[in-house]
Specification:
The chain has 79 residues and is mostly helical. Helices cover 73% and strands 0% of the residues. The protein is elongated.
Length: 79
């Protein structure tokens, strides 16, 4: 991957993680495993099935927590 492609990937990931970090990591891992994207060496760990499962679980927890005000405040406080 060229430096330009790495910078573009980093900029897109930074923007997407502002929306939802867990969804970004899950999608990145799934696309990496499926061969749709070649990840730089520092990000190849998100292709591990265990990492994908953990971030999907955290995404579901965050999605549900956002719907309940008290739980949402606790979840945000933890982060």
């Amino acid at each position: 991957m060229s430096l330009f492609e790495t910078i573009i990937l980093a900029m897109g990931l930074a923007w997407a993680s502002g929306i939802n970090l867990y969804a970004t990591l899950a999608l990145l891992g799934i696309l990496g495993v499926g061969g749709q994207i070649d990840l730089p060496p520092g990000l190849e760990m998100v292709q591990h099935p265990g990492i994908i499962v953990v971030v999907v679980v955290f995404y579901v927890i965050e999605f549900i927590a956002d719907k309940i005000p008290a739980i949402d405040s606790i979840w945000d406080g933890i982060h």
